[in-house]
Amino acid sequence: MKLIIRNFSTLLKRFRLASTLNILGLAVAFAAFTVILMQVNYERGFDKFHSKADRIYRLEGLDTDHERAYFASTHSRPVIDEFIRSSPHIRTGTLVSDWGQQYITVERNGAKTGFFEYSLPCFPEIVQIFDFKMIEGDTSVLRKPAYALISSSMAERLYGTEPALDKQFTYAGTTFTVGGVYRDFPRNSQLKNGFYYNFGPGATNDWGNWSYKAYILLDDPANKEAVVENHRQNYVRKQDNPDHYATDYRLNLLSDVFYSNDVDGMSPETNGDRSQTRLLLIVAFLVIAIAAINFVNFATALTPMRIKSINTQKVLGSPNSHLRWGLILEAVGISLIAYLIALIIVYLLSVSSFATLITADMTLQANGHLLLLTAGVALAIGFIAGSYPAWYITSFPPALVLKGSFGLSPKGRKLRTVLISIQFIVSIILIISLLFVKLQTRYMKTTPAGYDRDNIAVVGLSPEIAKTQTEVLSNRLKEYAAVEDVTFAHQLLGGSDDYMGWGRGYKDGDVHFNAFPVSPDFLKFMRIHIAEGRDFSESDLLKPDSEGTLVINRTMQQEYGLELGDIIRRNMEVVGIIDDINYTSMRKPIEAQVFVLQPDIFKYKMPLYVCYVRLRPGTDLPVAVEQIKKTVASLDPAYPTDVRFFDNVLDTLYKNELRLDRQITLFSLLAIIISIIGVFGLVIFDTQYRRGEIGVRKVFGATVGEILAMFNKTYVRIIAVCFVIAAPIAYYEVSLWLKNFASRTPVHIWVFAAALLIVLSITLLTVTLQSYKAATENPANAVKSE
């Protein structure tokens, strides 16, 4: 063991630069590999923490009443009730309505304080399906009206360190009592952390309100198809028009929901892309493969320099097995040192801003099983990197104590060429993938949406302001010189893939569309062009018998054959048609969309919760934001005002793509750097081996340029062959990923050429800089050393 440690120490001292680069490259690769596996494990582990996860299913309905058939994750309450009762194999089921973050208030020292928390009405049976780990109270309170189960994080926000049990908060005019506090669900959960309360008897006969998700607990997973088929055969629709609802249903296993990309109504936080996860996993293994190849090359390149020492030990009686294990343990030691450095890097990343690039929990204590796995990988890489050189170097006869030349032998060169070629193939694939991810991200953010998003601030409004004070707010905001115009809408245009879906009677059937209630001047404010008909007018607000005036998009017109003047339902008139605009992300194709102006006297008029403020060019934005906040606060002081600009809105909409962009950028750069470290190390050893050859060439008249060209030609040929192999692989992966977008960037040929040029440039620069010293060395010194 002492001999092994001494040899290990000598190795690090003798080849200090190469050893340092190798260890650092390996450490960075281990860190990247570990972080990526944390993210992949997070995505693949979605909803698997529930004890009954293998028997929990989400109900999804097939909607074929559009040009594009799709599954919907939301249903009406009667559909859910009917399905839960449809089979004895269904143990229980629940409705859950995720209404997003809603405004609630808490009394503190006689004053109201506002918060945004997830409102989650449900059936009491939800606690029989999902694991609610109670900290305070118990789950039975869900059977009581105006009682809520709240998450531990919500309890801390509202009440600090005080016990939350029996405390109260107000939401939508109802005062709720906290009946229990449950431990937060992990981040990778379909269920949000917020406040759960009894849905009550509402919407029992409302077949037209498709706002609710349904989760079903079966007695045995094997009965899933029997349950679905029984429902298919025996379910009798109880609505007026059979085309109004889903034509078929399926049960989607809870742990599969995250990757269900054929379902509408999924948010980016709870919906992933299997191809993106696969891409990350590929990157992880490519990065670790590059580092492992560097390590093998490093160990192999040392072989000729150590043959004399090894054979001397053999002459002195050391057995081959002892020598081989010594060499292997040296390699394992280097690998473990690199792994320990990697753990330090991961820890530093977890407490830095880098953690925002990863949705997974990066703390080491939360990933114990992954750390064991990556430690095993580190041991395996060390063992593999040390095994071949250890076997080869001890295979020489003891008499061979001079001139080990494996590094220059055809076999040695071939092995190194194959290994470095794999690195180049990986680097080219990563660079091509990176460029296309960036092109698609840029395409999504810069493609004209069909409306003007420049200089617009958006701010959410409290129910009190949205229902009664929008005109007052508008007038106050317009008093500021920086404000050009103000308008209102029920939702944020272009801020989601999931809008309010309406189904309304039309002639002998129904029309289905995404509804967007707005104020009269909204289309003018957003500079949306009216292609046919007219815009909304103030007089539309005064129609006594109307449920709304409609401006539809071109897809709506073509899908249902609508014309100007047509009446939907009983009294909703189509007055205008616009060309299609991108009101969702480019992940989705454009669907039927309707801007709705509801009369003031309409009983069910929807509040306009979003205020849009167009600022004049050149406005001091921080000052304008403060003015907007101050104005909103003057109408509702407790409301936590948040002002955003459309750049921020798009960043939220494309959060997953932007995160993938940054992840691929970072890990691709790491892979390229590690590859360059490998090339750098090989050139160090090549120039050392070939000093005599270089000296002889210079004696016979070779110039510095010719010597540099000799080194570079080898790498140019290798990279050319690698590009021919890498380009088709990258094309396949990129094409597969781009299919996730309804609108996507073309597969440009120039991207492949750019990737080749990048790899060539970086490699030739590295080779030239490192081989220049050998090319300019006095040939007499080089020849004498031989």
TrEMBL record:
Domain ABC3 transporter permease C-terminal residue range list: 282-398, 666-779
GO molecular function: transmembrane transporter activity
Membrane-topology descriptor: Multi-pass membrane protein
Localization per Swiss-Prot or TrEMBL: Cell membrane
Superkingdom of origin: Bacteria
UniProt entry keywords in alphabetical sequence: Cell membrane, Membrane, Transmembrane, Transmembrane helix
Entry protein name: ABC3 transporter permease protein domain-containing protein
Record-level GO cellular component terms: plasma membrane
Taxonomic path: Bacteria, Pseudomonadati, Bacteroidota, Bacteroidia, Bacteroidales
Residues spanning the membrane: 20-42, 279-303, 323-349, 370-393, 418-437, 664-685, 715-737, 749-769
Domain MacB-like periplasmic core: 19-231, 454-630
PANTHER family: ABC-TYPE MACROLIDE FAMILY EXPORT SYSTEM PERMEASE COMPONENT 2 (PTHR30572:SF18), MEMBRANE COMPONENT OF TRANSPORTER-RELATED (PTHR30572)
